[in-house]
Input
Amino acid sequence: MSENDLIEGTHPELFDEACRLTGLAYLMQVMHGDTPSHQFLLHELRRLDWLILLDTGTPHPGLRMAIELLESIDCQ
Output
């Protein structure tokens, strides 16, 4: 599935939530004095997704979308 298919095949609210969560992970990294990186964002979103899954038993759709979008980007 292409990045555009993933975005266009969902509700705009879900994409907004994915962007919000990615932005919060980015801000957290900057606030801790780290240099923002693609790998850190993926790690942080996966960690949060795992914690939510453990707590609720259900994956968070916004986090899953953000992770899929970031995984589809080649940053090498």
Q: What stands out?
A: Residues 12-31 form the longest helix (20 residues).
